[in-house]
Each structure stands twice: as C-alpha cells, then as structure tokens.
C-alpha cells in the first residue's frame, strides 16, 4: 500500500487502539471472468481518498476524527477458499475489538468471508446486497468462492435483500427470494422500492456494495459494467435512510477496476465510502465510545442455519 494512513489523516487518528473505524483492503482478483484489475482497486481507492476534502457538507461533519485504522491488506490468494477464510478471520478479529469494520475489494468473492464473520457476530443479520448481478450461484467454475457466488451463502444464512439487479442466470431463480429482490427495471419506474426494502430489513444490517450497481455513466471502471444502473443521488438517498433507520454493523465496497483514463470512478468510490462513514457517525460525538453491539456467543455453531423469518423486523 502506498498510503500510510487512510486519506492521509494524522497518525494519532489512525491508531488501532483509539480508532472507531477499521478499513481492511483486500486486493484480490482471482476468479473474475472478464476484465481483470479489481486487485488494483484498493490502491486506487486509497490514492483518491488521499486527495479528497474531509469535511462532509451534507452531514456537517468530519467523520475521520472518529479515527480510521488502515489494517494490513489481506493478501492471501493461493486459492479462492483460502482467501475467503483469510478475510473471514481478519474481519472477525476487528469486530471482536468493538470496531466499525469496513472492507474494500477486490472482486466480490471477498464478501463471502466478510458476511460470514458478520453473521457469526450479529444476531438476525440482514445483508443488503447492492449490485447489478444476482451473484446467487451455489458454485461456479468449480468453486463456491467464485465472484458469481458472492451472496449464495448469505441467501441461506441471513435475511438477504438484493437491490439494483439487472443481470442473472435463469438457474439463480431457483435460489432467489422474489419478495426481497428489487430489479433495476422496476426501480427505474417506481421509487417505492426504497421504503419497501427498508421495511423488510431487521435491525442489524450489513451492506455489500458492488460498484457495478451504479450506472456505467458514473462508474465505468468496474469489471462488468451493465447499463441501467443507480445514479449518485438516489443511491445516497437510499443509503442515508438505511443508516438512519437501521443499525448498520459494517459494509464492504467491491469491484473497483481502475482505469488510467478514468480517475472519476476512483474518486466516486472514495466519496461513497466516506459518505457511508459520515452517515453512520453523524450523530455520534467524537468523545463517546463506540458500541457495535456484537454478540460473540450465539452463532458459532449455528452459521449454516437459515435466517429465521419469524425474527422481529
Ligand atoms: Mn456485480
């Protein structure tokens, strides 16, 4: 990693002991099928972040003052399975330290390990999956840890809500919960999807944000750009509402595939990450200690059980 601290923040705000936020870079691109380059995502994101102004106008806050610890990158890439386990362990380690844990990829398969860790540590977890692709294949090209399988496990173990979907294989229909999927062509016609999606969430929400959910006109630097995606302000409106109404326990952002000729995508990813932090902490005093409300005791032996739909919404 070229950058010493996240966004070039002062070192006293970047210490693990005192930072409320942890950022784990995962420069992994082992299973992508079309354009390679998501392994360069974290560096491009950190470069753009270091060139960004750190006062957020909308929330009138400087969220970096809550402290952001830039963790060592997870570099395990001997196999998709080994990478997923390394991400799982790293994520869990920092959740146990009572941090707000965020992960920057890397291709979407990294989320398998991240979601597994959050599901073990938080009760009744909702996974909000924002993506152009359904990513519901049980296995793909011989692995259950392929990017095309990013949320299959979540579909079996958590309350999975999918937003922005506009590309899938017919076989994924056998897995998807049609009440909890918001297709892009429907979202374009009727904005009641925002309230509807939030109504279906439990209190603890993990967000996995694949940048190809965004329209290629504003996010061309991604491995598989699909037309008809989300625009910036509707994305922020939705995210802001989720952060206001739910306990967002962490998030990841994946699939930035940097391009020398398009720095605006890197910058969008940097701003989106910072916005999400700003929404999370906008009502928290810097002096107050952070409580993530993780629960270490309940899920260890139970991680394969299907989310209980009788759980409180
Ligand atoms: Mn995708």
List the helices and strands and how they pair.
Elements: E1 21-26, H1 41-49, E2 68-70, H2 80-96, E3 100-105, H3 110-121, E4 126-130, H4 152-157, E5 159-165, E6 181-183, H5 184-187, H6 193-199, E7 204-210, H7 232-245, E8 247-254, H8 263-281
Parallel strand pairs: 1-2, 1-3, 3-8, 4-5, 4-7, 5-6, 7-8
Bound molecules: manganese (II) ion.
Structure explained in plain terms:
- The structure is a single chain.
- With 313 residues, this protein is an alpha/beta fold.
- The chain has one domain (6-281): Arginase, Chain A (3-Layer(aba) Sandwich).
- Helices cover 28% and strands 14% of the residues.
- It is built from eight helices and eight strands.
- It has helices at 41-49, 80-96, 110-121, 152-157, 184-187, 193-199, 232-245, 263-281; strands at residues 21-26, 68-70, 100-105, 126-130, 159-165, 181-183, 204-210, 247-254.
- The chain has an eight-stranded parallel beta sheet, with helices on both faces.
- Helix 1 crosses helix 8 and helix 2 packs parallel to helix 3 (110-121).
- It is globular, with a radius of gyration of 18 Å.
- Residues 108, 131-133, 210, 212, 224, 255 line the site of manganese (II) ion.
